[in-house]
Structure formats: C-alpha cells, structure tokens
Fold these 2 entries.
Entry 1:
Amino acid sequence: MRGAQTADRIPEFTPLKSIQNYIDGKFVGGKREFADVNPADGSVIAQVAEAGAELVDAAVEAARKALRGEWGRWGVRERAARLNRVADAIEKRFDCFVAAEVADTGKPIRLASKLDVPRAAANFRAFSDLIKTAGVEAFQTETPEGKSALNYAVRKPLGVVGIITPWNLPLLLLTWKVAPALACGNTVVVKPSEETPATATLLAEAMREAGIPDGVYNVVHGFGPGSAGEFLMKHPDVNAVTFTGESQTGAVIMKTVAASVKPVSFELGGKNAAIVFADCDFESTVNGIRDAVFLNTGQVCLCAERVYVERPIFEKFVKMLKQEAERLRMGSPLEASTEMGPLISAQHREKVLSYYKLAREEGATVVTGGGVPEFGNALDRGFYVQPTIYTGLKETARCVKEEIFGPVCHVAAFDTEEEAVSMANDTKYGLAASVWTNDLKRGHRVAQQMNVGITWVNCWFLRDLRTSFGGVGLSGIGREGGMHSLNFYSELNNICIRL
Ligand code: NAD
Ligand code: 6OD
C-alpha cells in the first residue's frame, strides 16, 4: 500500500455525483445519462453522461490532434518520466481511488487497497521502466555482391488506440492497457464498463496533474451496441483496438473492426482448471484454491471454476475447502474485515443464480452454498450470492463447460496424471491453469501440457508484469505484458542501409 505512506496524499473522497466524459482535457456531459449503481445495496451513486457518436468523434479527433502536438514530439525519456508522475498522482489519491472502486464494484476495501489501486500505479511504473530499456532488432546483412548492409528497426506509435474494459478489476485492467499504450507514444480513447465508470474518470485528474497533455487520455462513457463502445470500435480514425471482456463480445467487436483492418488484442473469458495432486502441501493448497475460486467474488477471469483433485485426498480436500468457503466473511465492502462482497449487478446475479439452479438440474451435489445470503439490513438489496461448491457433475455438464464468473467451483476426482491433464484441457477456453504438487518434476511436466496462456505451480495470480499474459481459444487473441505489450502498442519500421 505504497500510497498509504505518501505524505501529501489526498485523503478525502467526495463521491462523484455526476460522472462525465473527458475529452481534450475537459470534462463534458452527454445528451443522455445512466445510473451508476452500488452493488452492495442497489443505491444509485451517480449519474453518468453517455457519449453519443458525436462525442466519440470528438474524443478520437482530440486524440489525433494530440499526436501532432508536444506529446508526439516527446522522446522516450520524457514520456517515461510522465508515466511515473501518473503513478505518483494515483498514489496521492490512493484513498479516493479505493473508495470509488469499492463503491462501483462492491469489492471489499481490503482487496481494492491491496490489489486494484497499487497495481494501477505499478502498471505505470512497470511500463515507464520497460520503455526506457526496450531494444529493437539490428542485423548486419551480407549483400549478394558480398558487401554489407545494416538492418535496424525503429519503434513508432500506432496512433490512436481504442481501449474497452470490463467491470471486474476496472482500474487495474484499464491501466494495464493505457500505460503501455502511452509508453509507446500513442494517444488513447478509453471506454470503461458502464457498471464501473468512476476510476477511469478519476484517472483523468491524475493525468492532468502528471502533465500529460490534453487529448492524450480521453474517456467516453456508455454501453456496447448502439453506444460509445460500438462507436469507438468502428471509428475509422482509431488505429488499433484492445479489448478485455467476454468472449462473445470479443466476437462481435472482431466483426466490427474487420472492415477497417486494424490490430486487435483480445483478453477474454476463461473456464480455468486447478489440478491438485495428493502430494501437495495440503493446507497452503486449500488456501490457494480458496483464493483462486472466491477472490473478488469469483469475478476474476483467472479464477478456477474447475478443480481436479487426486482421489486419495478428494474427500478431505472437499471438506476443508467447504470449511474455508463457509468461513469467508461476507458483508459490507466498507468493513475492513469483509472478505467477500456482492456480484456486480442484479443482472449478473440472475445469471449466476441460473447456473446454481442448472447445476442442481444437471445432478450436482451441493457441498455448500447455492443460494443468496440474508443480512437483515440494507445489504439485502445488494447483489450477494453464497460461495458455492459442487461435486458430482459429469464433465460434459454445462456448469463444467461454461464460464459462470461467480464464487463457484466444481470439484472432481482424478486417478492419473494423464486423466487430470485431459480433463483440464477439455475446454474451448484457454486462459489460465494452476497445478499443486510438491513433486517439482511433475509440476513442470503438467504445467507444460496445459493449453493456456498462463500456468501457475503452487500459486495463483502471482504476477510479474514483464511476463506474457493472454489466452488461447475462446480466451483471447495475442499477448500483452512486458515486451509483448510494447510490441502490440507500436509499429516497427525496419530500415535497411546498404553500406
Ligand atoms: P463484457 O464483454 O460484457 O463487457 C466488456 C466491455 O465491452 C464493457 O465496457 C462493455 O460496455 C463493452 N461492450 C459490450 N458490447 C460491446 C460492443 N458490441 N462493442 C463495443 N463494446 C462493447 O464483459 P464484462 O461482463 O464487463 O466482463 C466480464 C468478462 O470479462 C468475463 O467473461 C471475464 O472472463 C472477462 N475478462 C477477461 C479478462 C482477461 O484478461 N482475459 C480480464 C477480465 C475480464
Ligand atoms: O494481472 C493482469 O495483468 C491481468 N490482466 C489480470 C486479469 C484479470 C482478469 O480478471
């Protein structure tokens, strides 16, 4: 919690009653407004100005203009310094960002303080560091006449990058894309999720304070189809598109952008497996799987919704995981002791509850949960569900195949390593996996067989921002992270000089 120690931090958070678009360094309203709802009690936090096609045009135009201004003339050193200043400005507003993220998402304050906001600052610092040291290729080439030529590449920005993000880790995921895009010299127009508009808007203030020129960072609010999301994706002056969200939405966006042939990066859904071997460190594995299933109320794309446990420890494992799930403190996100908050919306709760019902219809044994908790206070108007564990489903069941995105997992037993690998890989998704064993050779062997973008061994969601991040199959296209981000957010111009 770096920001918590910052002497000149801004401690007071005044909830934004009206959330506006941010275009060319100015906050602007829209023709229509929609409500920003607190998922913990269903109350309306703010009215959000929706950007229509004209405002999206204005944002893209501002971003184009900024490419031609001082931002476009700055070298890497200046840009990198400004990114660090954005990180400083986030840390100075640490409590404001935490409060806004908690109000928008309902996530526990301890989670937003430990994960979301520190990671946002870390994203800017990581790409500030990286762009300063990023090399490009160079080759000495032999010509047909036996002379030589020098090939070297120069890195150039793509131009205006359109960024669309989801609601589960709003600031973390937005800055994960904004930071490398700016590091490479692009300008951006971001459309945060309609469920969580606040922190992208607060980030505008941090950008201003860091001296990021007007038009470099623009925010448009709204929905997907027929709204700001679609207008941004189909805009002819947007040079590249990066999207995080559902696989189905990715498919729609892909069609939208196809007409203008632009680079796309897609970070999409998952139906991630965890494989637990009998030789694992039992207690830390149970705790690790508890986090992998229930963190952020199961609303992390990397969460494990399928847990495969070697038969000799299956019963004991299920019993201990049940205890851990029942021990999770659900409650007000503002209480420091709360470990699990609500789901994001009434609509998403309907979806998760429909899977809870479907699981029973598909023949699941309900180990724990499966319903809605009762608090006897205002939280009953919030969108809470119980942490839930199932066993006994067939591997072909919809609840084992489809992403639910809630605090729920199915636990199944396996007898051999081959069987575990085969069940884990039997999915159209391919985002993340985890393997839990004290046999390091087996850890390597199994990890290398996972058809995913990221495999953790004896841990989960342990991040190094230099590593590649992305998915296979329905889980995405391309990789971001470290140099992969720099390569996506820039074009290389190879220069060949005959010597
Ligand atoms: P979503 O796809 O419903 O929405 C994501 C964003 O896309 C929102 O801003 C939304 O307004 C916008 N959008 C929707 N339709 C659009 C359209 N036609 N054109 C342009 N924009 C459109 O996803 P969500 O419900 O916000 O997020 C949850 C999903 O995101 C889950 O599937 C989760 O696995 C996935 N996710 C993946 C990653 C990853 O890194 N792979 C990270 C977080 C979340
Ligand atoms: O840690 C990250 O960089 C990242 N993109 C996490 C995604 C989490 C999905 O909900």
Entry 2:
Amino acid sequence: MLALLGLVMVFASCGDQGKSSSNGALSSSAAEKVYVAPGEQDDYYAFLSGGYSGNLTVYGLPSGRMFKEIPVFSQFPTSGYGYSEETKPMLNTSFGFVPWDDSHHPDISQTNGELDGRWIFINGNNTPRIARISLSTFETEEIIEVPNSAGNHSSSFITENTEYVVAGTRFAVPVPQRDMPINEYKGNFKGALSFISVDPEDGRLDLKFQLMMPGFNYDLSHPGRGKSHGWFFFTTYNTEEANSLLEVNASQNDKDFIAAINWKKIEEYVNNGGGTKMPANYAHNVYDEHTHAATTTMKKEVLTVDPTKVPGAVYFLPTPKSPHGCDVDPTGQYIIGNGKLSADLTVHSFDKMLAAIEGEKFDGEAYGIPILKFEDVLAGQVKSGGLGPLHTEFDDKGNAYTTFFISSEVVKWKVGTWEVIDRKPTYYSVGHLMIPGGNSRKPFGKYVVAMNKITKDRYLPTGPEMEHSAQLYDISGEKMELLLDFPTHGEPHYAAGCPAELLTPNSKKIYRLDENKHEYATLSTGDARVERKGNEVHVYMSMIRSHFTPDNIEGVKVGDKVYFHITNHEQDFDVPHGFAMIGQNTSELLIMPGQTKSSVWEPKEPGVWPFYCTDFCSALHQEMQGYVRVSPANSNIDLSWSLGGD
Ligand code: RUQ
Ligand code: CUA
C-alpha cells in the first residue's frame, strides 16, 4: 500500500505541469464570476485557518482577496497582539507563556443548526488550546487550555446550538502525565475528548467534562445535527496503539473506528453528579472588550468521565482504513468516514446505528466499549475512483464533495445513491475543502474552496517555499467549474465561511471612549500625566490626529521601567494610531479608536529618545512624534511632561 501511495504521489505531483487542456485557459465567464469591481464587496466571508502561523485569516469570496489576519495563538507584531501588556495574558498556558501554536479547524457558532455569525472557534493543536474570536470585533476574546491532551486535532467543532465546542486529543498520553516507559503505551495511555461549554449570552468557555477514551488517536470529529443532534462523531486511527513507526504499525488493522458519543447522555450523567474530579492545571484567558485587557485564571480541577460507567453513551463504528475526516451531512443521517488509505468512502447511517444499538448486535468490544457490526451500520460506499480521501463537505442540493489528497482532486457525489457525479483536479494535493455553511443544516452551495498542500508551479517562485494555494470552484451547476487560484497564508487546514450580510451589520466600527474601562485609560487630555512608583514610570498618554499628549517627557532614568498607557481619542471608523519607541524590546502598539493599550520600555542609555505614530493617519502623520529625555540612574531631574510647551 505504501509503495503504491508513493507511486501515485509522484504521478500526482508531476503530472500537471501548467494547466491541463481539459480545463483550458479560464474562460472570460470564469473571470467575470470572480471579478469584484473596485469599490464593490464580496458576497462571502471565508475564514481560513493559518496552520503553523497560529492565526486565522479572513478572505472574501469570490475574489480571493485577503482582508485580515486575526492573531490567535501567535504573537503578532503588526498589531502588538501578544506584545502589549493587555494581550500578553492571552498566550499564558500551564507551560508558561507560549507565543505560537498550530491552528487547524475554525467553526462558526450556530443556532438551530444554522450559522449565527456570533463567534468563530479555532483549536491550537500543539499546546492544546481552544480560542473564541468575536465576529463583531474580529479579535480573539478567549483562549482555554485543554489539560490531559496532546495534539489537539479533532477540534474545534461545535454542536448545533453552540452548546459545546469539542477538543479531541490526537496523541494519547499518560493521564495524569507521569514518567513511564514509552513502550508501555498500549492499554495505559488515554485519549481525552473534552466538551467545553459555551455560555449562550457571552460565549464564555468552561471545560464541562472530559471523556477518558482508550489510547487511540482521535483525528477529526463532527457533530450530529437534526435527528442526530446530541451525538458527536470522532474518527480514530492507530487503534493498534503503536508507539513507534506509526507509518507502518498504525496501518495494520483493516478497520479503525468512528467513535459515536452520545454527549447528551453524558451531560445528564454529569449533571446528576457523575464523573470524577481530578486535579489539573490549565490556563483560562479572557479578554474584555471594555477594559481592553486580558486576564489569566489557572484552573485546578477537571471532571473526567469513564465511558464504561455510562452505558449507552459510547459506541465504536468500524471504519476502513485509518480514517481522517469525519463528516456529517446536513440532515444528520449520514456519517462519512474518509479512509485515507482507501479509495472508497464509508458512509454510516445514523438510523441503522440506532437500530443496531437497540438490537444489541455487537461485534465484541474495545476496553469495554461496544463495537457495532460494520454491515449493520453501513449506509453505503462511494466507489470514488480517487485515492486518499480526506474531507467531505455538503451543498444545499443533496450533494457531497470529497477531497482526495493522493489523486489531487475534488469528487462530487450524490448523498443517498453514492454515485459519483463529477470530479475536478486540484493543484496540488488537496487537504480540506470548504463550502460556506457546509458544516451546518443550511449550506450555501455556491462555491467550494479547496485548500491545497503543495503549490509548485502555480505562482511565481519565491525561493524553496511557496505559500499554499487555494482553488475556488463554482458549484451552482451540475459540474464544478474552476474559477480562481489564490494564495493562502500559513497552512490552512479547515476553513469556515458565511454570507457577508450575516456579519457586516454587526461589525464593530469603533470602541466608545465613554465605555472605556481600562484601568490606565486617559479619557481626557487634562488627565494626561506621568507618575513615578519607585523605578516604575507610568505614562498616561492620549493620541488624536496628529499628536500625542504629552509629547515631551523628562525625568526618566536609566534603570526605570517605563509603561506607556496610550488611549486613542478618535471616534471615527478605521482611524487607529500606532506607537513605537526607539530600541524598545517589543513590537509597536496599534491602538483602535477608543481603545487603550500599554507597552513597556526599559531605557538603557541616557539621551533624548524619540517615539512616533506608526500608522499613516493624516496629512500630518509625520509630525505625530515626541521625545523622552533619559538621565543617568543617579540624576535628580524631576518628572515633567508637556505638549506645545505647556
Ligand atoms: S487536517 S488535511 Cu489538521 Cu484538518 Cu486534514
Ligand atoms: Cu497617528 Cu500616524
């Protein structure tokens, strides 16, 4: 099998030099379909995970224009996220300050199974975390660390009323972590599936319970919806529980499992006092839109649930060949396992699953969890003719679209008859794909975006590495039509999209100055001042086009820690100001209208040191500057500050 994969990969990656003749040069109608004239706006938002950038990028469809990079798990000097005093706590973990992660699967909040456009969630895969981002401010508002986990990959998918966002561990680990021989993995490591509740009002996250599953690798997951609401489905691989050379050793079993979790049942069990509290240590970081600052709370306990203690809550559905994606169709009836070492897709039936459970027709058990019979739960197989299926999305007309990594294509097939309707090449080696709303009861079946792993010849070369590439297809007709290539940033895994009008009315334009509750805010220029507390100097500064108040400061000494707390007094849309100080060992601050941000500077040498606004904000932006006089440590020059000589 591996030799075959290798062969096909070589074929797939070298086969298409330039555009193949069947696709031809793009017709002018394709160009018109993606052309968004100057001044006009796109129809859809697309949020692409940034993969190893740790962030989330925002695009418009159909133009493929990138609008923004939202910093989530990584420090972002462009805005000062993770550098400013207010945002540093967002990156706290039980491992200390961790300023990077690998972000994978964004998912937009839902109400009644439809996108509601309130928040978007994304997982940090490396140091397990889940983030919640406001779709009004486009800022990361909350990050919760996930204990007892590693490789937080089968995340961050939400249930149809955003009751929970789940986080499943890819690497099984000892729970609790301890010093033990690696080769005693089998039977001893655990795979935690975490259910994090989302407050319906303010979105606050709380780790409600962790299901301690056998030590398989939990790869991806999707919620049940409609009739299967209340269930969650997770693919597994390495049911062999190998701890070395997984490439070979985790491909031994003909079938791994999809784990079907009745989370409603477990929720009930937990609400009735079930589960075991276990000591833990994990960070919960919350950013407040009114104080403009984040705080970290270290949580010390987690509620764990042993699946064998809740009869009827967890079952295994045998699924061939090391399945990757686990996708549920808009009706909630079908659960698709994308066996990445196989050519066929396996589709399980929710109704059949319930009947098999009812009839107690089991095919043995694994660690006390009943295994259902493959034939009893199988709805059908898609004989795709492709190789290496990874992920499936759905449109609003009963069709499914599956990516094939090895054969580098998107295959369209009919849900229910399983017949293949169309296939189109991707350039190259496609991973995820996204249809706006494609993971909900109500997809918007106009476009699909394919996110590819290999770019090669699609763009002008940029040295040994090229940004990954996405392809946009029109899927409104029977056949898919390739419309556009566009580069992406980092490595997009999944993406989430929605109609533009779902978000635009609520998009925040400014922060109101009269609602600014920052403890160091300077709400009127009369309050601007400089205060000394021992060797700490706090500068209460305001900014407006085109000056800082104050802009001359004297009496600072070598050895001081100077905190600049700067409030932007603008109340106009899209008028941030920046702040940067020469030699400062941090990034700039980019401060939104009405917002306060702080950064620290430790002057090393006596002198007169300038600062300036980094964002070209007015015709007199270049005049938006100032000086700090720094005297020797033993100097007795008093603190003073001024603007325009006053
Ligand atoms: S993965 S290319 Cu991180 Cu979602 Cu499948
Ligand atoms: Cu303010 Cu430039």
